[in-house]
Write a structure and sequence with these properties.
Layout (H helix, E strand, L loop, with lengths): L1 H21 L5 E7 L8 E7 L7 E10 L2 E13 L2 E14 L13 E5 L2 E5 L20 H12 L4 E6 L7 H6 L14 E3 L3 E8 L7 E6 L2 E8 L6 E5 L3 E9 L10 E7 L2 E6 L10 E8 L6 E10 L3 E7 L8 E6 L2 E8 L5 E6 L3 E9 L8 E9 L2 E9 L3 E9 L1
Parallel strand pairs: 9-17, 18-26
Antiparallel strand pairs: 1-2, 1-8, 2-3, 3-4, 4-5, 5-6, 6-7, 7-8, 10-13, 10-15, 11-12, 11-14, 14-17, 15-16, 19-22, 19-24, 20-21, 20-23, 23-26, 24-25
């Protein structure tokens, strides 16, 4: 009997260790409490981190509480190495009451450093550049509260302990990770479609060489780390993965002439793209993200579903799954240009507005996956003016669906 119990104990221990090893150490809820003086309330900071996208981008939410103030913010984190996550510049407020912090949340920047089961903020200092706590005296009633929050955000040591391993899984995850679903810029640029598996990337310094150093990751692979931008601009020939390619460009420092003026440049097809720390939206950012999709030109057969004559250029596509929601996602291309990628097909109806060009327009639907119940299916209603047309989509890894829309 004892021998059997011992065997079961060893097996269960092994399983537990395997599960723990597979769990992401960053995902979960982290918290700290800071009480500056005995007679005042504690400042409570909570950070919820979701599972990583392509091993490199983490959706997260910050909750900051002090006295009567509560703030909840969406933020993007990015893996720099095994022990560091970069902290996104933008913190989008979901809730701020009774006053707004505005750009003061920029003070929490730099990296989250993992050590001995805790994470600590290592700031990149940005004092003296026009963001020092503007609006402090806007409302005298809250001046003292603002001062305490300023000191905490700007200079206090921030170290958080993990209180839960449950990753962030609410609606914020998609808004943070999928730029096409939100107008909010948190560091990820609009998706770019690549038709070739090889691209060239070049790192440039937009101003005089001032010891700016940068790091570049492709998904979870490091291309180079902490390299100075100099006259020998780094040109990299990079092979894209099939699907989503996330290039995370880190400013390691602000050089001798803040902010960092590094620029990541690439040309895909006939178009040029620049991911520039000098851009106003990226000033004093820790990182920016290029989001490039590459789909292998597998020889899929395009099955024609319909040819529809329309009298308006403005069309609305309505998509939904009339059966069990099983994780299907599709990509849509209009006249050779991708208009949606990785679009989830749900039971709830979703609308996609498109604009046609005069003459014949080709709308292509391509399966990204087969879901849990093959094939990839969806109901489609095309609304044009006062008319509509209902169709059923059925795609897989060998066939696409094609619809011709003729604008007369």
């Amino acid at each position: 009997m004892n021998r059997k119990l011992l065997i079961w104990f060893i097996l269960l221990t092994g399983i537990t260790h395997t599960v723990m090893a597979q769990a992401d150490k960053w995902a979960g809820t982290w918290q700290m409490s800071s009480k500056r003086w005995p007679h005042i309330p504690a400042i409570i900071l909570e950070l919820k981190i979701g599972a990583p996208e392509r091993g490199v981008l983490y959706p997260a939410k910050i909750k900051l509480q002090y006295g009567s103030f509560t703030g909840i913010y969406e933020v993007l984190l990015a893996r720099k190495n095994d022990q560091q996550l970069g902290i996104g510049r933008g913190k989008y407020p979901l809730l701020e009451t009774p006053f707004k912090l505005g750009i003061w949340m920029w003070y929490i920047n730099g990296t989250l450093n993992f050590q001995e089961g805790k994470i600590s903020v290592k700031r990149m200092w940005i004092d003296g550049f026009g963001i020092w706590m503007r609006g402090l005296d806007d409302d005298e009633l809250y001046t003292n509260t603002k001062v305490q929050l300023r000191e905490f955000l700007y200079r206090d040591s921030i170290t958080l302990k993990k209180i839960s391993s449950q990753p962030l899984e609410d609606s914020s995850v998609r808004r943070i990770l999928r730029k096409e679903t939100s107008d909010i810029y948190l560091g990820i640029y609009d998706p770019i479609m690549a038709g070739d598996s090889m691209i060239t990337m070049q790192v440039e310094d937009q101003e005089k060489h001032d010891k700016d150093t940068v790091t570049l990751l492709h998904n979870n692979r490091t291309i180079f780390s902490r390299q100075e931008i100099n006259d020998q601009n780094r040109r990299q020939q990079i092979k894209l993965d099939t699907g989503r390619n996330l290039f995370v460009f880190f400013a390691d420092n602000y050089g001798r002439l803040p902010p960092n003026t590094g620029n990541l440049y690439t040309k895909i097809g006939e178009k040029e793209y620049s991911f520039d720390f000098r851009h106003r939206a990226n000033a004093f950012a820790t990182f920016v993200v290029a989001d490039i999709y590459y789909k292998q030109s597998a020889q899929r057969e395009s099955i024609p579903l319909a040819s529809i004559k329309v009298d308006t250029a403005n069309i609305v596509l309505e998509l939904w799954d009339s059966a069990k929601e099983d994780g299907d996602s599709i990509s849509l291309r209009l006249n050779g240009e991708w208009i949606r990628t990785g679009f989830p097909v749900k039971n709830a109806l979703q609308k996609i507005p498109i604009r046609l060009q005069p003459g014949e327009n080709t709308l292509l639907f391509m399966a990204d996956n087969l879901g849990s119940i093959p094939p990839n299916t969806a109901e489609l209603r095309i609304r044009y003016g006062t008319k509509s047309k209902n169709l059923r989509l059925s795609t897989d890894m060998k066939k696409n669906n094609e619809i011709r829309l003729i604008l007369e």
